[in-house]
Design brief:
The complex is a heterotrimer of chains A (119), B (442) and C (499). Chain A has four helices and nine strands. By secondary structure, chain A is of the alpha+beta class. The mean pLDDT of chain C is 94. With 499 residues, chain C is an alpha/beta fold. The chains are: A alpha+beta (119), B alpha/beta (442), C alpha/beta (499). Chains in contact: A-B, A-C, B-C. At the A-C interface, loops of A face helix 14 of C.
């Protein structure tokens, strides 16, 4: 299951874990990603609040978490090559979290709703 | 016609015609009548150059020409003639921020050189080129550390920082709601035990200290970085730049951010401005650093070239989410500092410090020998600036006034009986003798 | 400008043992020895170069630069006017610059006179009661001005409730950034299609929680905010203050004064309106002015004239600034009294202009309108003129060629001009913002206009060439993505990489 925030973050849910990244639309709009500011493993994230930032030459955007929970992994490959986000935003997630309240997922947009929102 | 204004009446007529206007007034039809300037400014007729020269010369005479034994954050060092010669090239000084790298390599290159020199002097990985002065650079360091410290709000500030720096920190801290706490001093240096206790209370984003400090004292910061880092806080050390030619650098003390005043690197005193703030940090804080940063890259022809980089952090893109509102770089002063450091090299900068310190120690010894002064903190080490206490019944102001009569600025009076005395390599034996004689005559 | 790139770094000229200095310093009986504990371990990586090589290095480097003295610099919103040479000469006169800031007031009357005279002249031209010259730059002036606003509201017991600052969406990025750093929540207000503030939208955002409204007039699209009297009235009615960003004050010299428009607090960029050089990015100076009644909220230290006619530095700054309460006066924003050397230059300029300074605004606007009317056939003009001191085009009129504002800007470099400000303001996709200033002659403008027209023709006839611009600059198409992806910001990291 993949869900979205209006601010273009997605969460791909697998069991009670989720992979959070930015949508292909957002990656395209940003242009070449030059840096991803990520939290550390063990940090808490809160639904709707910032957990990091993503920069390109022309923009710097905050990253918002779709759910609350704990960061269990950060995608360290992005430290060496942030352009992986451009190459495949869905495969190259930014953080992996344990979802503390699955009910929060209900408030997020599904794929169809998100696709409609960026038309 | 005024020499800066090229418009002849014929030009104006032809240009108005192109604009479809009958008078310049037409172009201001949208400015409501009630807002118009009535009767012009109360200003005199244009002043010819000769008169302007005369005017400023007369003002110059109202500034006393003094042998300078004052420091207090601003230092009177010798500046080689070549520094001003280079800084006077109008290709440099009439340019603006290097937005177009294709035609701004001159500016970009000297900023890159300056960044490299500051990084090396401070022992840090990266430096910017954008701080106004030492006090605001320290304030930017504080805000940067708080931004990096996520939700931590407390910042511990040593009582031994120059008062002006603490005052600027206080002014800047209020808006973002940063909680500043003083770390008390003990015998002229930061009280490490007090600091330890304050760190223990938690929630500390950063600790800010200075060495040499407000009394000229060199603080022993051994083991401090470990202690600060164990509390998950960042260590900020303020040092006036010239002394880094000999002093253990901020990087060698284990600091995360180095900052301070760099006026001492070849800038005139200019009655306090422009100075030059510097800010340098470790690699992992680079993207939290405010201001302009120049980086190297290659161009279409494979040449090594320089560009402004990491701009996404900045105010023109981040707007109200930016970590700083700085939008200039201190171009001309960074050029002066870069040329100064190029001419001096590591040996020259060492020589400046050793000579200054030798003269200062000689002066202080002789001043104390008059019986009219004693060192306020005799147990402490210092370089070229030292806090003296006047003998009983003698006020510091009396000393200052007596010396002024002989053309000597004796130091900075910092209290009823305290005067902070400083010497640099430009002080001559005559200056020192005059100083001693003025004191002996009291 | 030299077409050859001079790209050697000073570090690459370094040879161990060379020296470029002859320092003074008499021998003392004892040589000071720094205790081991405080001594640096490594030798700083500074170059060792002889003086002739240093001078040649920086001279060559300067020929790869472009300044106002090199050619036309129509950078919108930056007021790149001529920097008179008497300004520079004045600073170098004996007794002017070699003055320590801790010099007692009685021995620094000349410097204090410079400060005081400039304060008075700026008050006259700004229509304000008093100025502080302490802020170091425009952005620093904004921040200080907002601190003045905060201190004022706190003095009335409203510090905690007035949390918002309203900024037009066309504002320069420093406005919202300064407001945020001063601790305010930033609220944007909309612009109308003609580029001026939407008064209705602004009114709807006013309330008891608003501290100030920040405006630039003329605004960033070069239009005069003609509704300013109504705006000021509404803002004052809700108890908030009007802040004037002096970035575009050049347009109004001799025309109107911010104080007369209802602004309470303002800053001036001396490096724009008052001709002090931009210095490759600094030093600037951003003095702030306040209307009558707000003088006591200005920062410390201040320069005041005593009853005896002596000028004195007033410094009420406290020794325990961290215990400051919001009712105390605003403290310090600078180590000393601001960028004094810049004040000397601005004062020299104002004296040399005298009453003729009243022609500055009108002639700057004439120059801008001349360009506007000469280019509007070929470039998209979203807001019809007349403009004030600058105008914004939304790229080329003919969008079918695929040529962008970036291409136009880069082609101008080939033709010997600096580029205009591009992609700002954010109101348009292809913003191209041109500010000629009053010191440019009709002939210079004609050459520029012809170049702009030639570029527009090239877009239609040979768009591929235009898209490849610049073609003739010493540097072409630097890889800025690479610079951001793998930052190399010191010689040390560069050298490590090349090994």
């Amino acid at each position: 299951m993949i869900k979205y925030l209006p601010t273009h973050e997605y969460i791909r849910v697998e069991g009670n874990e989720g992979y959070i990244g930015i949508s292909p639309f957002a990656a395209k709009e940003l242009g070449v990603v030059t840096y991803v500011d990520m939290p550390e493993e063990g940090d808490e994230v809160v639904a709707g609040e910032e957990f990091g930032a993503i920069e390109s030459r022309k923009a710097a955007s905050d990253l918002f978490s779709p759910v609350s929970g704990e960061v269990i992994e950060v995608n360290s490959a992005l430290e060496d090559d942030p352009t992986l986000v451009n190459a495949d935003p869905m495969k190259n997630w930014i953080i992996k979290v344990s979802i503390s309240d699955p009910a929060e997922l209900d408030a997020l947009m599904n794929e169809a709703a998100y696709e409609a929102s960026i038309k | 016609m005024h020499p800066y204004l090229p418009h002849t009446p014929e030009d104006i007529k032809a240009m108005l015609e192109r604009c479809g206007a009958s008078s310049i007034e037409d172009l201001f039809a949208d400015v409501p009548e009630q807002l118009r300037l009535k009767g012009g400014y109360r200003l005199d007729a244009p002043m010819p150059e000769a008169e302007i020269n005369r005017y400023f010369r007369s003002l110059g005479r109202k500034n006393a020409d003094l042998a300078c034994f004052a420091g207090y954050g601003f230092y009177s060092h010798y500046c080689p003639a070549a520094v001003e010669a280079i800084a006077s090239r109008s290709e440099f000084y009439t340019a603006y921020t290097p937005y177009q790298p294709e035609i701004s390599q001159g500016t970009l290159q000297y900023i890159f050189e300056y960044q490299s020199m500051i990084a090396s002097l401070t022992g840090m990985d990266v430096a910017n080129a954008s701080m106004y002065d030492g006090a605001t650079a320290t304030a930017e360091a504080m805000m940067m550390a708080v931004a990096a410290g996520k939700k931590r709000r407390r910042v511990l500030v040593s009582a031994t920082l120059l008062p002006a720096v603490s005052q600027v920190l206080a002014t800047y801290a209020e808006g973002p709601g940063i909680i500043l706490e003083t770390v008390n001093e003990h015998e002229g240096a930061t009280d490490r035990e007090a600091l330890h206790a304050q760190l223990g209370a938690g929630d500390v984003a950063a600790v800010i200290l200075a060495t040499p400090n407000r009394y000229g004292i060199l603080e022993d910061l051994e083991g401090l970085a470990d202690e600060v880092h164990a509390a998950k806080a960042l260590l900020i050390i303020n040092t006036h730049a010239s002394t880094l030619g000999v002093l253990r650098s901020q990087g060698e003390w284990g600091a995360d951010i180095a900052c301070g005043e760099a006026q001492s690197l070849g800038l005139p005193l200019n009655y306090g401005g422009p100075g030059l703030g510097y800010l340098a940090c470790t690699h992992n804080l680079m993207r939290k650093m405010p201001g302009r940063i120049v980086g190297a890259t290659t161009d279409a022809d494979g040449q090594r070239v320089f560009v402004l980089t990491l701009q996404a952090r900045e105010q023109h893109i981040r707007r109200h989410k930016a970590t700083s509102n700085i939008c200039s770089n201190q171009g001309l002063m960074t050029l002066q500092a870069a040329v100064y450091l190029s001419l001096l090299g590591p040996e020259g900068l060492r020589e400046v410090n050793e000579t200054s310190a030798s003269i200062a120690h000689d002066l202080v010894e002789r001043l104390c020998a008059t019986g009219r002064f004693r060192m306020r903190y005799p147990e402490r080490e210092w370089l070229n600036e030292c806090l003296l206490e006047t003998a009983e019944g003698l006020s510091a102001q009396t000393v200052l006034d007596a010396c002024l009569k002989r053309g000597i600025l004796a130091g900075k009076v910092t209290g009823e009986n305290e005067i902070l005395v400083c010497a640099t390599e430009i002080c001559t034996p005559d200056d020192v003798r005059n100083y001693i004689e003025a004191v002996e005559a009291l | 400008m030299n077409k050859q790139l001079y790209s050697t770094l000073i570090f690459e000229l370094s040879r161990h043992g060379r020296r470029g200095h002859s320092l003074p310093g008499y021998g003392t009986a004892k040589k000071f020895v720094l205790p081991e504990k405080f001594a640096r371990k490594d030798t700083p990586a500074l170059p060792e170069v002889e003086e002739p090589a240093v001078v040649r290095h920086y001279t060559n480097s300067s020929t790869n630069n472009f300044g106002v003295d090199t050619g036309f610099y129509p950078l919108g919103s930056c007021t790149m006017k001529y920097n008179p040479k008497i300004n520079e000469a004045a600073v170098r006169l004996s007794g002017i610059s070699d003055l320590h800031p801790a010099t007692p007031d009685a021995c620094a009357q000349g410097a204090l006179e410079i400060y005081r005279r400039l304060q008075e002249l700026l008050s006259e031209m700004g229509g304000m009661s008093e100025f502080s010259l302490n802020p170091y730059a425009g952005a620093h002036g904004e921040l200080t001005g907002l601190m003045v606003v905060r201190t004022y509201h706190a003095s009335r017991g409203e510090g905690a409730v007035r949390r918002k600052v309203i900024v037009p969406d066309s504002a320069h990025g420093t406005n919202p950034a300064s407001a945020a750093i001063a601790g305010y929540d930033v609220v944007e207000c909309r612009s109308l299609p003609d580029g001026t503030v939407d008064v209705e939208d602004l009114r709807s955002k006013l309330g008891p929680d608003v501290a100030a409204v920040m405006m630039t007039n003329p605004n960033t699209v070069g239009m005069f905010e003609k509704n300013i009297p109504a705006i000021a009235e509404a803002v004052h009615a809700c108890g908030a203050l009007m802040y004037y960003d002096g970035a575009n004050l050049n347009a109004l010299l001799g025309v109107a004064r911010p104080g007369d428009m209802g602004f309470d607090v303002m800053h001036i960029n001396l490096h724009k309106t008052f001709s002090t050089p931009h210095g490759g990015g600094g030093p600037g100076a951003g003095p702030i002015g306040v209307r009558k009644g707000l003088e006591r909220f200005l920062p410390m230290p201040r320069v005041v004239r005593g009853d005896d006619g002596m000028l004195r530095v007033l410094d009420d700054s406290t020794e325990t600034p961290f215990e400051r309460t919001e009712l105390d006066p605003l403290g310090r924003v600078s180590s000393w009294l601001g960028n004094y050397a810049v004040f000397v230059k601005a004062l020299a300029y104002i004296l040399s202009m005298g009453k003729d300074i009243e022609q500055v605004g009108p002639l700057a606007c004439l120059n801008a309108n001349y360009i506007l009317n000469s280019l509007k056939e070929m470039y998209e003009l979203p807001i019809p003129g007349p403009c004030k001191h600058e105008m914004v085009f939304d790229g080329l009129r003919d969008k079918s060629t695929g040529c962008t504002t970036m291409n136009v800007a880069k082609r101008l470099l080939d033709m010997g001009f600096h580029a205009p400000t591009i992609y700002f303001p954010l109101l348009f996709h292809e913003s191209l913002m041109i500010e000629p200033t009053e010191t440019e002659s009709r002939e210079t403008l004609d050459v520029f206009i012809n170049a702009m027209r030639a570029i527009a023709r090239e877009a239609a006839e040979d768009p591929e060439t235009l898209k490849n611009a610049p073609l003739h600059t010493p540097v072409r198409h630097p890889d800025e993505n690479e610079a951001a992806l793998h930052p190399k910001v010191t010689y040390q990291s560069l050298a490590a990489d090349e090994v």
